[in-house]
From TrEMBL, chain A:
Keyword presence, Transport: yes
NCBIfam families associated with the record: sfuA, thiB
Biological source species: Hoeflea halophila
Protein name: Thiamine transport system substrate-binding protein
Classification via InterPro entries: ThiB (IPR005967), ThiB-like (IPR005948)
CDD domains noted in UniProt: PBP2_TbpA
TrEMBL record, chain B:
InterPro entries according to UniProt: MetI-like, MetI-like_sf, ThiP_ABC_transpt
Residues annotated as transmembrane: 12-35, 55-78, 90-114, 134-157, 200-221, 241-262, 291-313, 325-352, 364-384, 404-427, 460-487, 507-527
Protein known as: Thiamine transport system permease protein ThiP
Organismal lineage: Bacteria, Pseudomonadati, Pseudomonadota, Alphaproteobacteria, Hyphomicrobiales
Gene Ontology BP annotations: thiamine transport
Subunit structure as annotated in this protein's UniProt entry: The complex is composed of two ATP-binding proteins (ThiQ), two transmembrane proteins (ThiP) and a solute-binding protein (ThiB).
Family, per entry: Belongs to the binding-protein-dependent transport system permease family.
One Pfam family here: BPD_transp_1
Membrane-related topology note: Multi-pass membrane protein
Length: 336, 540
């Protein structure tokens, strides 16, 4: 039958489509990261240009929804992952990431890096940090929550968009934040908060998009997010709420995959992450605080941001030990 | 009429097709069952599973109720007004959601019903304090009613139009109107088709994936299918995916058995646009309620589609059309669609011929089994939804990472199975006609076996093949269920690309893409319908 011969032929026709464009440079590096990092307005394109000018190589970004999705994808692909560097996990995930056996010690000197709490690791290099915060629209929220308890107990009609802790590092961050403040009472807190949640998105960009388009008056983001609106849009309309209990800290990291096709190039990139060529791009493109020295002035707006008086941060081991159970707890409370 | 050799060949082909389908279903289920022991169920998980199952059934029940509550009066109003301008177009419009990719519709619904949409602005002007939320249960219900209200109207309306004109004349003579007419004439006529429409709508909503994925809004509004997807893609927890899949299969099985017990499956009847004259219906002021009902119905179904067109046209289409990724996705989508359609038509042809060969009253148990199974093969795919099928293959292939051909073939297979019931419905009457018309002559002329297939039967059925094929391509083009598990930067289809653009909130791109995808599938559906009506074999 003609049809039966046609199917393999049709499938074969698909393959060249999917293989993607071949690189022109001799050396090529693929970096796995999260979506908002490589958006047109994100840091990805600028960092790519800066690094390619230095290395004479071809840098390709591959983006997934968010940081935790990155780890899921690595677990799924195992040794088949065709990347050299993973950029976009945070310290909450590094113990689990190491346990996969897919990463290798970078062997680089990291003394250029300074982050709060002094996180330092032989496998993962911090590239930026920030504090999670509820960002609100001053035009629709007259009395922003002054604490996490305010947020939990507040008016259910006033909605917030949050991210799913199973795919997103901000989502996981909020889960850990609530756990830090409420401890064993976290499920009850989540049950209350659930009535204020408009929707749970897989990644940060989707949630922030819903917020800026006016679908919800609050979103889980960072204390640094208002700087974007002040600098790029010259408006004070969006502000971060300072919480009296303190804020959860996020330190984002990059690591070297043991199966990297070109390990030297991957290390070169990780070294580059700690230089001003990379770090200068971070504050006004990723809207996070740099983890190493920059050679530019931070815009004035950064001086007007909420500065948390107290910060929370679980150790990677604590998170690795409890993440599955805490997520089950979250699912149970949120589906009630 | 078939010769003995042809009978043998037909049954062998049917058996082969059945085995292929059986294998395609059994392998993933076996994989799921053997994977089951990996994790225990904690009490938190147990609660979660119960709640998701409950929510799945609850939202399907509410969606069905809402769809029917609006469909019955709307069908009644349409039957009462058989000849207003645009009636044919309205009924055609009501056929569109059935073929519209759910993602495209979701985008249109967000445009209309989102916080900044027209509907909420209107509600705000009317003094509503809390805006309607497109996320969570209310959004899911809205989307399900958008898809199923028109379907139910199209299923119920023919029942009213089939009533002989004398009924209405008598009713007019007796001065019957309003409630008594509804109770004595209209409702008894509609009851059967309304019940079977309700069954179909419930089944469709209980297995809804894309709409819940996009509009669900968190663990509180998650169906089993979405939870299966999340267990694999979010948690990478095969044990939980297996548990959820088994619950899903048992649930659909029970629902199907109940529906089977309650009555025959819904068949869309002929609604050519003009109904029977209604001497019992008055004009003038009495026109108003019907006109309002019909107007609102048309607006409800039409507005989201119009929104897709409007926002799509305001997007930068030329940039989208010069984007290499778009063309790659279009190429992948078309290749998958064409392969899936070819496979689906091939399987359906084998099954249809085997069923014919086994006869209306099969003389032996094996023949009866063959006929029964060939007929049921289509609905089997409803029993095991695409995401469950995909989950089994996904685990077997180790997530499909680093592979291209295998995941593609799984997507093709799943899409082919999804289209199978529709393709069979197109092929069966055409095949029947062909054999009735040419069967005896062919045998008496000695044109049998392969020659008869290639020279008589296949050429005669070409229009039906083409209809089924094009319809299957369109269905596959709009599908997100199969690609959702396997999609990555390596395998990108149009719905996957659209989902990603929605996710990263590149709204303008998403709107443009939705317009293109919607236009392509609509064009294919129109071609399929044109081919079908020329052939006289399709009643869509």
């Amino acid at each position: 039958m003609r049809i039966s011969r046609f199917i393999p032929a049709a499938l074969a026709a698909v393959v060249p489509f999917i293989a993607g464009p071949a690189s022109s440079a001799d050396r090529a590096l693929t970096v796995f990261t999260y979506e908002s990092f490589i958006a047109e307005w994100g840091p990805g394109p600028k960092i790519e240009a800066a690094f390619e000018a230095e290395c004479g190589c071809d840098l390709t970004w591959v983006g997934v929804a968010d940081g935790v999705a990155l780890l899921n994808r690595l677990k799924l692909e195992g040794d088949n992952a065709e990347a050299g560097v993973v950029l976009g996990l945070d310290t909450n995930l590094v113990a689990e990431a190491k346990a996969t056996g897919l990463f290798e010690a970078h062997g680089l000197d990291t003394k250029a890096v300074t982050v709060p709490g002094g996180f330092s690791d032989d496998t993962f290099i911090p590239y930026d940090y920030g504090h999670f915060a509820v960002v609100y629209d001053t035009e629709t929220v007259a009395n922003p929550p002054a604490s996490l308890k305010d947020l939990v107990d507040g008016e259910p009609e006033q909605k917030i968009v949050i991210q799913d802790p199973r795919t997103s590092t901000p989502g996981l961050g909020l889960l850990l934040w609530v756990k830090s403040v409420y401890g064993d009472d976290a499920p009850e807190a989540w049950e209350k908060l659930a009535s204020r949640v408009l929707t749970v998105t897989p990644g940060w960009s989707e949630a922030y998009g819903l917020f800026t388009s006016g679908e919800a008056p609050m979103v889980l983001s960072y204390t640094t997010s208002p700087a974007y609106h002040m600098v790029a849009e010259e408006t004070d309309r969006y502000q971060a709420a300072e919480f009296s209990e303190g804020h959860y800290l996020q330190i984002e990291v990059a690591g070297l995959l043991a199966n990297a096709p070109d390990k030297d190039l991957a290390r070169e990139f990780l070294d580059f992450v700690m230089t001003p060529g990379f770090q200068n791009v971070i504050p006004t493109n990723n809207w996070m605080l740099p983890a190493a020295a920059i050679t530019m002035e931070l815009p004035e707006a950064f001086g007007k941001l909420v500065e948390p008086k107290k910060t929370f941060l679980y150790t990677p081991e604590e998170v690795a030990e409890n993440r599955a159970a805490w997520i089950d707890e979250w699912l149970g409370a949120m589906s009630r | 009429m078939l010769t003995r050799g042809e009978h043998r060949a037909s049954r062998a082909a049917g058996l082969a097709a059945l085995m292929a389908i059986g294998l395609a279903l059994a392998v993933p289920i076996a994989v799921l069952l053997t994977h089951g022991e990996s994790t225990g169920v904690t009490s938190n998980q147990g609660d979660y599973l119960i709640r998701i199952t409950r929510f799945t059934l609850m939202q399907a029940g509410l969606s069905t109720l809402l769809s029917l509550v609006f469909a019955v009066p709307l069908a009644r109003a349409l039957a009462r007004r058989p000849d207003f301008a645009g009636r044919r177009w309205l009924i055609k419009l009501f056929a569109v959601p059935l073929g519209l990719p759910p993602l495209v519709a979701a985008l249109g619904l967000i445009e209309v019903w989102g916080r900044n949409g027209v509907a909420n602005k209107g509600l705000g002007l009317m003094g509503a304090e809390t805006p309607f939320s497109i996320y969570g249960l209310s959004g899911i219900l809205l989307a399900h009613v958008f898809f199923n209200l028109p379907l139910a109207v199209r299923l119920i309306l023919p029942a009213l139009e089939r009533l002989p004109p004398e009924y209405w004349k008598t009713a007019a003579n007796l001065g019957m109107s309003g409630l008594s007419l509804f109770r004595r004439v209209e409702w008894p006529a509609m009851r059967r088709s309304a019940a079977s429409a309700a069954g179909l709508v419930f089944m469709l909503c209980a297995t809804s994936f894309t709409l819940v994925l996009v509009l669900g809004g968190g663990p509180a509004a998650t169906t089993l299918e979405v939870a299966i997807y999340q267990a694999l893609r979010f948690d990478f927890d095969p044990g939980r995916a297996v548990l959820l899949s088994l619950i899903q299969i048992s649930m659909t099985l029970i629902v199907m058995l109940v529906l089977k017990f309650l009555g025959t499956p819904a068949e869309e009847g002929e609604t050519k646009g003009g109904g029977t004259n209604r001497p019992d219906v008055q004009g003038g002021l009495h026109l108003l309620p019907d006109a309002v009902l019909i107007g609102l119905g048309g607006l409800f179904v039409g507005a989201p589609m119009a929104a897709v067109v409007v926002s799509g046209l305001s997007a930068d289409l030329s940039r989208l059309l010069t984007d290499a990724l778009f063309w790659r996705a279009a190429g992948t989508s078309l290749s998958i669609g064409i392969s899936a359609a070819a496979l689906s038509v091939l399987l359906a042809a084998c099954l249809v011929r085997a069923r014919y060969s086994a006869g209306h009253r099969p003389r032996s148990v094996p023949l009866g089994l063959l006929a029964g199974l060939s007929g049921a093969a289509g609905s089997l795919t409803l029993l095991v939804p695409p995401v469950v099928l995909g989950a089994g293959w996904f685990l077997l292939l180790g997530g499909g990472a680093g592979q291209l051909l295998a995941p593609l073939m799984v997507i093709v297979l799943i899409n082919a199975l999804m289209a199978l019931p529709f393709v069979m419905r197109v092929l069966e009457p055409a095949h029947q006609n062909t054999l009735e018309r040419n069967g005896r002559l062919a045998v008496s002329l000695g044109v049998v076996g392969r020659h008869r297939l290639s020279q008589i039967d296949i050429p005669a059925m070409l229009p039906a093949f083409a209809t089924g094929f094009v319809f299957a391509v369109a269905l596959s083009l709009g599908d997100l269920g199969a690609i959702a598990l396997f999609g990555s930067d390596r395998i990108v289809t149009l719905p996957w690309l659209l989902y990603q653009k929605l996710g990263s909130y590149r709204t303008a791109d998403a709107a443009g893409l939705a317009l293109l995808l919607g236009a392509i599938t609509m064009a294919l559906m129109i071609v399929a319908e044109k081919l079908g009506t020329r052939n006289g074999s399709v009643d869509r």
